[in-house]
Design brief:
By secondary structure, the chain is α/β, with parallel strands linked by helices. It is 41% helix and 12% strand. The longest helix has 18 residues. The structure holds uracil. The site of uracil has 11 residues, from loops.
Length: 215
């Protein structure tokens, strides 16, 4: 009967009527669809130990996107990336080049906290980075800033040491998005002597964005 009705309407050139409730709202908004997919993900096993997923935060139209490693204890508790001590340093690093957290977009390679903050496993990275790639595709930032080895190695598909890949502009993806690598703020908390080099990397980001750095 339904098929006959559809055929009849088609013959008359009328678009068949479809119940709106059948269409999930998430389909209409790519950000909501992605957020739902992340929230429901149980692909790698980290859902067993996470408190919640940590999607990302900031301006979805940001020119600068920061990519970290994975949520830690506080991020897992609060559902937002970089809210712990490393996050406070990241905020200060951003301020040094004239940005607030709200003016950039911040996301991680993994959306779930690995137990005891261990390094992400290769299969976790494989399962999760599709989400990050969609975030990058939706935002289309002018510059990506990878903080730390895990993010840098994934985005550059390399195992080269961070000290060799920081301090220059690389590119990422089909859009050849400018990509700068710097030290992870958690590393800088332990090794403040490298803050000077991190500042040089941030100035590089600032120049790439065509902004004058005040300092
Ligand atoms: N370290 C990261 O890489 N990401 C966070 O969100 C917090 C700490």
């Amino acid at each position: 009967m339904q098929a006959l009705r559809t055929q009849f309407l088609k013959t008359m050139g009328i678009q068949p009527w479809v119940l709106r409730e059948n269409k999930p709202i998430a389909d209409e908004n790519p950000w909501e669809a992605l957020r739902c997919a992340v929230q429901q993900c149980n692909a790698c096993g980290l859902q067993k130990t996470r408190t919640q997923t940590v999607f990302g935060t900031g301006d979805p139209a940001a020119k600068l996107m920061i990519i970290g490693e994975a949520p830690g204890f506080y991020e897992d508790q609060q559902g937002e990336p970089f809210v712990g001590r490393a996050g406070q340093l990241l905020n200060a690093m951003l301020e040094a080049i004239g940005f607030t957290r709200k003016q950039v977009y911040i996301a991680n390679i993994l959306k779930c906290r690995p137990p005891n903050n261990r390094d992400p496993l290769p299969e976790e990275v494989n399962h999760c980075t599709g989400f990050l790639e969609k975030q990058i595709a939706l935002i289309q930032p002018a510059v990506l800033l990878a903080v730390g080895r895990i993010a840098a190695h994934y985005l550059l598909n390399t195992k080269t040491s961070l000290s060799q890949i920081r301090g220059k502009v690389h590119t990422f993806g089909k859009l050849n998005t400018a990509l700068v690598v710097t030290y992870h703020p958690a590393y800088l908390l332990r090794n403040p002597v490298d803050k000077q080099k991190a500042f040089l990397d941030l100035q590089l980001v600032s120049r790439k964005l065509g902004r004058d750095c005040e300092h």
